[in-house]
Amino acid sequence: MSPPLLKLGAVLSTMAMISSWMSQTLPSLVGLNTTRITTSDTLTQISPKEGWQVYSSAQDPDGRCICTVVAPEQNLCSRDAKSRQLRQLLEKVQNMSQSIEVLNLRTQRDFQYVLKMETQMKGLKAKFRQIEDDRKTLMTKHFQELKEKMDELLPLIPVLEQYKTDAKLITQFKEEIRNLSTVLTGIQEEIGAYDYEELHQRVVNLETRLRDCMKKLTCGKLMKITGPITVKISGTRFGAWMTDPLASEKNNRVWYMDSYTNNKIVREYKSIADFVSGAESRTYNLPFKWAGTNHVVYNGSLYFNKYQSNIIIKYSFDTGRVLAQRSLEYAGFHNVYPYTWGGFSDIDLMADEIGLWAVYATNQNAGNIVISQLNQDTLEVLKSWSTGYPKRSAGESFMICGTLYVTNSHLTGAKVYYSYSTKTSTYEYTDIPFHNQYFHISMLDYNARDRALYAWNNGHQVLFNVTLFHVIKTEDDT
Asked: Is the pLDDT of residue 204 over 50?
């Protein structure tokens, strides 16, 4: 065992001895039963949070690094355990030193009182001997009074002897306290007073480097869906709930839109916790009824399909006004090309890492899905892609990094069955299952900030976690 650890062992042993003595001996002494010192020799262990994890790594044919990274929750670094333990020990020693000083003052005061009583007792004892020698000179009554007084004072003699012993012990304890303080100060100097600050800075630097690495990640490809996590049970069988993927980390507002038609009320909650508890912060009365459940909140505005039309509305939550509206040319509406569950789900508005999208079907594309990228300000179609997947055969769909993922059903056994990349204008059939716990999904949208799928599952608001495959960009990539 190294010298610092031996010293620390001595400290703990001495503190335990002091605590035992004070808890067992002092309460039995006269006048000291109101002072108690409690110590604990249990040190709190600090377990670090789970860190960044690299699940796999490899090189592609061009020599570039390929890896799967799972980022941890953001948190603050835990304090260094040894430094924290030492600070706790120093605080305990200081508290004990103060308590011992109080005990010493009381003991000295009572000791002086007992010494005075001892002098009186010796005088009475001498008088008693004199009386014994010449009983005939005093009355029997006076003798009895003195005898009773002596009997009252006799029990103080053991107390006096105990005080003499305890006074010496307290002096020893004071010396031990001084020694403990010196030892602890020496240990702290050996470990270093600024270890925690240095360690914290190193962790902050590492986190910064890892975040810089994350910025180099290309858009991910969907590999797995896990969950769901049930957040709340509310509303009708159909509806939508969402957060803003472009909001700041401190802005966690939730928007809630119950039913797929005949409604204009949007409810806002300041956080997921408020949403769960039902603590509504604000209500918006839209100028138009919406159609379907495939709305999206993006950069502070709500985008929705106006009821019985193929018109898209952009509504600002800040101003409470419609900022833009535009007809989506040739798009089917009012249950012409809905998802398999119906509900006027002809036009699906969504957002991902790239921007704002509309997914729908047209007669010109034989009822198959059309993907259009939209200008978030004007709602103008920037570019469109025609797929070969029938809109009426899709359960739901969502965009991740410019790729559309389509489920084969809204009922039990649903899975991601088809994907279409707008980057390469190619498609592939996939087989990514997920647990449709409540048997009827009427809304499924990806949130790029949370890296999660928001879903409305038969009156249950749930979240699915997604696992994406990333490729790290090199300096040579354009």
From this structure: yes
Q: Are 19 and 28 in contact (CB under 8 A)?
A: no
- Alpha-carbon gap, residue 2 to 11, rounded angstroms: 14
**In this structure, are residues 306 and 325 in contact, taking their beta carbons and an 8 Å threshold?**
yes
SS3 29: coil
Give the integer Cα–Cα distance in Å for 302 and 317: 7
Q: What is the DSSP letter of 136?
A: G
The neighbouring-strand residues paired with 313 are 304, 325
CATH number for the domain running over 221-470 = 2.40.128.630
- Residue 12 to residues 37, 138, 184, 358: CA-CA distances in angstroms? 15, 64, 11, 68
In angstroms, the Cα distances linking 354 to 294, 378, 471 are 18, 17, 17
Distance CA 39, CA 392 (A): 72
Residues 6+ away with beta carbon under 8 Å from 327 = 309, 310, 311, 312
> What is the reported pLDDT for 175?
75
Domain ranges of the chain: 84-125+141-218, 221-470
Tell me the pLDDT tens digit for each residue of 265-278. 999 999 999 999 99
Residue the block writes with tokens 């012990």? 169
In this prediction, residues 253-257 reach a mean pLDDT of 98
The bridge status of strand 254-258 relative to strand 280-285 is unpaired
Q: Which two tokens stand for residue 457?
A: 């599952």
Q: Is the pTM of this model over 0.85?
A: no
For 466, the 3-state DSSP assignment is strand
Lowest mean pLDDT segment, chosen from 184-193, 295-304, 332-341, 387-396: 184-193
Q: Output the pLDDT for position 148.
A: 73
